[in-house]
Write a structure and sequence with these properties.
- This protein is mainly β and 298 residues long.
- It folds into three domains: 85 residues, no CATH class; 170 residues, no CATH class; 38 residues, no CATH class.
- It is built from three helices and 16 strands.
- The longest helix is centred in the N-terminal third of the chain and has 9 residues.
- The radius of gyration is 28 Å and the shape is elongated.
- The two termini are 28 Å apart.
């Protein structure tokens, strides 16, 4: 598996002139295999490397416009990512129309737990008849009791699974961008937030869609869609006792484990900013919990 180390000091360069800032960021990608060209290609498409037209994480309004890869030692590639100011013709990218839509719907699913997180189950006790041959069968009172050498009791515990409509909040964000989002869409769709987003902790928001339509101006209307899971997108596995209660102190092993199912990415690298409200607070219609860091502040 490739490992990315970005913002290497050696080779990094920042310039400023009348046209704004230029920055060359340097990354090292290790753990690659294949021919030199294959290693360079795999380094450039690694999700840890900034994508073309991706906004700079700290310098406002400059974008990655060129990436170069050079094979170094065995399995190592150095990648230069060059950023410059958005051209004047693309000014709409920096301050043009941004639309935001937020809504919550219900999604059909199933659950084994009630609204308080307790397991849904039933318990009952059955009589088991034991024959002389050692066979065990659920005892029926109609049977001749002489057919059994003994009667045992067995406590049954059955977990129930019921239909459940889970609230799912969807946030749709749209803006004009200079570049084709083809590479960016492959990198972000199907990933979850690595850092806090929209007032929620990590792993609560899934990027479910990223698409773009080319405009007459040559810019792209890029649409982002994020889905919020009220339970988070990580999988929770719980081992309970026969009575359905959580095992507080198991003798050994784990009675509760959390598994990360989706890869995570730092969504702040997308540089999404909220339209300003009439009060100029930077929030939209009082959605104070939606807190996307503005460009240049991350």
């Amino acid at each position: 598996m490739a490992t990315v180390s970005i913002d290497i000091v050696e080779g990094s360069e920042v310039q400023q002139d009348a046209n704004g800032y230029y920055h060359r960021r340097v990354a090292i990608v290790s753990g690659l295999s294949g021919t030199a060209s294959v290693k360079i290609y795999n380094a450039l498409i690694d999700p840890g490397i900034p994508q073309l037209y991706e906004l700079h994480p700290t310098i406002a309004f400059i974008q990655c416009y060129r990436r170069r890869g050079r094979a170094l030692d065995s399995g190592i590639v150095e990648v230069d990512c060059e950023y410059q100011l958005i051209p004047a013709d693309d000014a709409a990218v920096a301050g043009g129309e941004v639309t935001l839509e937020v809504g919550t719907t219900l999604q059909a699913t199933t659950t084994e737990r009630d609204h308080q997180g307790n397991q849904i189950f039933t318990t009952h006790t059955t009589n088991i008849g034991v024959s002389a041959a050692g066979d065990r069968v659920v005892f029926d009172p109609k049977h001749n009791i002489n057919d059994w050498t003994s009667i045992e009791t067995r406590k049954e515990h059955q977990v129930g699974q019921v239909a459940y409509f889970k609230p799912m909040t969807v946030l749709r964000y749209s803006r004009l961008e200079a570049g084709n989002p083809r590479v960016k869409s492959r990198s972000y769709v199907g990933t979850i937030n690595k850092t806090p987003l929209f007032g929620d902790p990590k792993h609560y928001w899934l990027c479910s869609r990223l698409s773009g339509q080319r405009q007459v101006s040559g810019l792209y209307r890029v649409n982002y869609e994020f889905q919020r899971n009220i339970d988070g997108w990580d999988a929770l596995i719980i081992h309970t006792q026969e009575d359905g209660k959580f095992i507080q102190e198991p003798v050994s092993g784990d009675s509760l484990r959390v598994f990360q199912v989706y890869p995570d990415r730092d969504f702040t690298r997308l540089g999404l900013t909220l339209p300003r409200s009439s009060a100029g607070s930077g929030t939209l219609g009082g959605f104070d919990s939606i807190n996307i860091p503005p460009i240049g502040s991350i």
